[in-house]
Every structure is written in C-alpha cells, then in structure tokens.
C-alpha cells in the first residue's frame, strides 16, 4: 500500500476556528483515522506544520498534539518544497498577503472566508491561483451540515414544487465584554481590522443560496451597529465600528425571494443558531445545522386569524422530522477530505477562489446597498478558464 504524506502549512491555528475546527476536528482527525484512501489504494496522510506569530502558543499546541513542526517564519515554511498545501484561518486583514505568497511559492491553497477584504482583491487572488496552475479552495462548511444536506435531498426530490421564498435566521447574543467575556474576538467589531457580520456571513449565504436555490441576482440590505461600545480581551473599552447586524433581501434566479437576518445582537428563540425556512407550492421545510422538519401540502392546517380568542393549535407539532439519510460527521472535516483529494489526485472540486470571490462581492454589494439605500443588481460570474 502506497502512502503519501501531505504536509500542510496551517496559518492561524491559534484562533478558535483554526484550532478547534480545522486543526483538531479536521486535519488531526483525518490523520488519526489512518488518512484518506484514494481509488487506487493510495493513502494520503495529512501532516500539519503550524504557522503563526505567537511562538509560545504554537509550541504549546505542537506539544499538546504531538506535532514536530511549527514556525513563526511563514516565508521559510513556504520555501520548503515538502510543504505542498497552504491553509489560512488568520484574521481577514492578514489573509490576502499570505495567500499571494503561498500562490507565488506554488502551493495549493485552501482558506477560510472571506478570502480578501474586497472583491477586487478576492478576484485578483482567484486569477493568480488560476494562472499559477495551483489548486485552490475556500471553506464552504454549511453545505456539509446534516440539516442542510436533508434540505438538499428534499429539493432534489422535488418536494417543494416551485420554491417561493427562503427565510434565514442566524445569530446570537455576543456579550459586550464588560460583565461577561465576549465569545468572539474583538477585531470582529472593528471595521479597520476587517470586522463586520456582513463580510463574515454573506459569503456563506451566497454559496448556500446558489447551491440550493440558484444564484443571487439582486440584493437590498440594511446594516447596523447595534452595540457601539464593547470591551476587548484585556477588558479595555473600544468603539465598535463594524456592523454587528445585517438584514438582507435577495432576489434569486428563477424568481424566488430570500431574506436573511444576521445578528450578533439577538437572543435566540429557535431550535438552532441557524435556521432556514423554505416555502414552496407543494410543501415547506425548516432546516437547521443538524435537523430538518417538513410540512407537505396535504398536511397543511387551515389557520384562521382571530385575535379575539386564544390560539389552541400546536403549529410546531404539525411538522415532521426528516429522517437522516446518511451519516454526517464534522462538516469542516468532510470538506477538508474533498480538498486534499482534489489537491493531490485532482478529484472533482467546485468551491474554488472564484466561488470565494463571489461571496466577497455579495458582501460588498450589501454594504453599498445599505449606504445608498437601494437595491443593487448582482453581476454574472467571472470566467474561470485561462484567457
């Protein structure tokens, strides 16, 4: 049996997502499972090389997980020919420069979103990677969640008939940091550091809507900074200059309308932190991260509006759970496996940096829509082929 060690420079693993989801639950989990077996029997063994600015934290992580290699010198790591893949989970403001270096070094690149601070930078990265002939990808983890996969099965089976509308609710209360520590890093709330919920979440909504229902053709958004004063990791107060809530309406190709409320200043009164309700002529569904419930046309009750009497109907009880159609592990790990198969063996892959640029473009248009107070069209896709 042939075994190939795939050395991955992992930049940003001292952060919450880079550490928990990408290093521990994805790359190390794949390694502990014995690697990734290709069709010809070859096994890919992912081997992380930790990269970052804080040598002490990198040393501690390497010791904790029994890893031999870490470095604070990104240029030296990228110059190592045995490192073939570069992954970036840094703060957004640092990502574009590092990705450019990795592409110039001939590394296959995989990164968190957004891939750059603006659409021009994101598109330039995608073109650089294309022209350099390296394989490239962006994290699109929501597509690999059990609830969303259940929703996709319903769509593929024609359960909804004609889809009329999609309603997305995402968010939770992020503590200001004075009386309780905030659950998110303070840079998320400073526009000058690349923060803002629009840049963070609208790239997710772009690929979710595109892959489930169709491309976004227009956007109208309102952005807000509901909590203008927060406290950082050291307890120092600062002005929150980035949006902590975004309210968007999207017209989709084919005529369906999607609405998304995204907020870090909302208290949760739903089953999951993200829920999508889809209504169609033949049925409806509510999908979260884990579960999916449906109500078919034949099961739809006949509500009557009467504000003068108490409502006795158990509306939530009138929906049924969709059975799990397949075993779903960690969503990040599932996509990591696909990307490594693509990077090493050229297996199919569609979540490239051009897809990442589309997400950045939607966020950028949403900001502009909010500033100008009007609906904006979303242009067609950038060609991927070489000129």
Description of the structure:
With 387 residues, the chain is an alpha/beta fold. Helices cover 32% and strands 25% of the residues. The chain has 9 helices and 18 strands. It has helices at 16-32, 55-65, 74-78, 92-104, 119-132, 146-156, 197-212, 331-345, 353-372, and strands spanning 3-11, 36-37, 43-51, 70-71, 83-88, 108-111, 136-138, 163-171, 216-224, 229-231, 237-239, 245-252, 257-263, 274-280, 283-287, 292-296, 320-321, 376-377. The longest helix has 20 residues, at 353-372. The model has no long low-confidence stretch (mean pLDDT 95).
What is the strand content? 15-25%
The strand order across the widest sheet is: 17-16-15-14-8-13-12-9-18
Separation of termini? 41 Å
How many β-strand stretches? Answer: 18
* SSE string, helices as H and strands as E: EHEEHEHEHEHEHEHEEEEEEEEEHHE
The largest pleated sheet is described as: 9 strands, mixed
Which residues form runs of ≥5 with pLDDT under 50?
none
Number of helices: 9
The radius of gyration is 22 Å
Would you tell me the structural class of the helices and strands? Answer: alpha/beta
Q: How much helicity do the residues have?
A: 25-40%
> Looking at the structure, what is the overall shape?
globular
Question: What integer is the average pLDDT?
Answer: 95
């Amino acid at each position: 049996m042939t075994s190939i060690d795939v050395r991955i420079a992992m930049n940003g693993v001292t952060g919450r997502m880079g550490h928990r989801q990408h290093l521990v639950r994805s790359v190390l989990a794949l390694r502990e499972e014995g690697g990734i077996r290709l069709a010809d029997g070859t096994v890919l063994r992912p081997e992380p090389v930790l990269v970052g600015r804080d040598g002490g934290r990198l040393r501690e992580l390497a010791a904790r997980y029994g890893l031999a290699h870490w470095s604070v010198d990104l240029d030296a790591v990228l110059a190592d020919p045995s490192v073939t893949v570069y992954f970036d989970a840094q703060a957004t403001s640092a990502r574009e420069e590092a990705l450019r270096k990795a592409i110039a070094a001939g590394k296959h690149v995989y990164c968190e979103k957004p891939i750059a601070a603006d659409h021009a930078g994101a598109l330039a990265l995608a073109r650089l990677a294309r022209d350099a002939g390296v394989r490239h990808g962006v994290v699109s983890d929501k597509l690999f969640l059990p609830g969303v996969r259940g929703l996709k099965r319903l769509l593929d089976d024609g359960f909804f008939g004609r889809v009329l509308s999609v309603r997305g609710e995402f968010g939770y209360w992020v503590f200001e940091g004075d009386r309780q520590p905030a659950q998110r890093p303070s840079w998320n709330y400073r526009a000058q550091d690349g923060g803002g919920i629009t840049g963070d979440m609208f790239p997710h909504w772009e690929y979710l809507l595109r892959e489930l229902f169709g491309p976004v053709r227009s956007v109208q958004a309102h952005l807000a900074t509901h909590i203008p004063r927060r406290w950082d990791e050291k307890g120092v107060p600062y002005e929150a200059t980035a949006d902590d809530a975004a309210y968007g309406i999207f017209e989709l190709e084919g005529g369906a309308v999607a609405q998304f409320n995204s907020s870090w200043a909302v208290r949760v009164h739903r089953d999951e932190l993200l829920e999508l309700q889809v209504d169609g002529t033949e049925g409806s569904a509510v999908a979260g991260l884990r579960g999916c419930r449906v109500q078919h046309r034949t099961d739809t009750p006949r509500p009557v509006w009467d504000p003068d009497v108490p409502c006795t109907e158990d509306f939530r009880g009138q929906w049924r759970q969709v059975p799990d159609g397949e075993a779903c592990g960690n969503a990040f790990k599932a996509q990591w496996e696909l990307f490594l198969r693509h990077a090493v063996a050229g297996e199919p892959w569609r979540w490239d940096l051009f897809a990442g640029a589309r997400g950045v473009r939607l966020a950028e248009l949403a900001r502009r829509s909010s500033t100008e107070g009007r609906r904006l069209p979303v242009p067609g896709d950038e060609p991927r082929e070489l000129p």
